[in-house]
């Protein structure tokens, strides 16, 4: 039943996902803070909602525009379910903004498969990644994905290898100038984020631990499913699927390197994982299997969400 609803793209499906997102957002915020009528509180929530909805539709645009999935709504559904696993992400403005800019970068990198305007796409993707790094420093690791994309598509032109450095200098100069004018403390805050911490001792309750354990099992299943079935996918899309795999692994590295760890930092893995989960269901011809996978994800995400409220 679940798969029959989301196996096609429709306005109804998008509306269902957006309504569910808004419901989860307001339920989480109702539990962590009293209702706020201040202008600052309203503006903050409006920003969070805008970034969340924008991220959903950006995910949908990337997979549809580049043919990474069939004509279904699974990608945005799974992206939302992964958000629900770690509800603290609904109140983390910096992480949400960083992830939004990474999605903009992924949009440009995936579209490199067309070989149209590769230099512009490489520069844009690099710039978006460095902007994301301003909100969460270790997002800068995604610059590796730019070079991986260059290797896949346009490695023969040496100028392509230099473009990320140009984007870095441009972004750094603008940031320093703005920080010096607006608030010099921004520079010190960014420098402090460069520290590393590999310890996993941030859990405040067993529900967070259980949600992480569920995510690890799900992520490993879809990751290995994609890796072992990669050669069966259309040849023209294999480079894009490999980018999804590398993007997921880099997202894990960002989580591992980050100093102030939180389950919400796994946000950077949600897009590639949602795409891999979508492919796992779409390429299966067993309807019972599709229903079981979808129901398990929905049940696990809803249970984790309400347990952590």
Based on the model shown, name its key terms.
309 residues, mainly alpha
Can you put this structure into words, describing what you see?
The chain is an all-alpha fold and 309 residues long. It has 13 helices and no strands. The chain has helices at residues 2-6, 11-32, 39-65, 74-85, 93-110, 118-135, 143-153, 158-182, 185-192, 206-229, 235-257, 270-282, 287-307. Helix 3 (39-65) packs parallel to helix 5 (93-110) and helix 10 (206-229) runs antiparallel to helix 13 (287-307).
Helix content: over 70%
Task: Quickly give the structural class.
Answer: mainly alpha
- Stretches where pLDDT is under 50 for at least 5 consecutive residues are none
Rounded to an integer, what's the Rg over CA atoms? 19 Å
Largest sheet: none
Q: Which overall shape is indicated by the principal axes computed on the Cα atoms?
A: globular
Q: How much strand content do the residues show?
A: under 5%
Per DSSP, the total helix count is 13
């Amino acid at each position: 039943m679940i798969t029959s609803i989301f196996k096609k793209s429709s306005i109804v499906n998008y509306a269902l996902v957006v309504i569910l997102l808004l419901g989860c957002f307001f339920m989480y915020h109702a539990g962590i803070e009293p209702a706020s009528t201040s202008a600052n509180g309203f503006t903050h929530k409006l920003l969070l909602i805008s970034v969340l909805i924008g991220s959903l539709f950006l995910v949908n645009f990337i997979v549809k525009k580049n043919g990474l999935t069939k004509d279904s709504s699974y990608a945005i559904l799974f992206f939302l379910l992964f958000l629900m696993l770690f509800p603290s992400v609904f109140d983390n403005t910096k992480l949400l903004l960083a992830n939004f800019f990474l999605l903009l970068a992924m949009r440009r990198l995936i579209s490199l498969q067309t070989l149209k305007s590769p230099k512009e796409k490489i520069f844009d993707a690099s710039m978006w990644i460095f902007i994301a790094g301003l909100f969460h420093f270790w997002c800068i690791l995604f610059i590796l994905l730019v070079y991986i994309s260059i290797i896949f598509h346009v490695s023969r032109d040496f100028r392509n290898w230099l473009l990320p450095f140009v984007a870095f200098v441009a972004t750094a100069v603008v940031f320093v100038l703005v920080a010096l004018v607006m608030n010099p403390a921004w520079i010190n805050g960014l420098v402090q984020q460069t520290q590393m911490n590999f310890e996993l001792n941030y859990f405040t309750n067993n529900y967070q631990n259980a949600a992480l354990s569920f995510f690890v099992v799900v992520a490993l299943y879809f990751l290995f499913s994609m890796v072992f079935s990669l050669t069966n996918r259309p040849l023209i899309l294999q480079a894009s699927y490999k980018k999804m795999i590398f993007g997921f692994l880099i997202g894990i590295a960002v989580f591992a390197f980050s100093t102030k760890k939180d389950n919400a930092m796994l946000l950077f893995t949600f897009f590639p994982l949602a795409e891999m989960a979508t492919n796992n269901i779409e390429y299966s011809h067993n309807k019972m299997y599709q229903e079981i996978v979808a129901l398990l994800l929905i049940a696990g995400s809803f249970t984790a969400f309400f347990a952590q409220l």
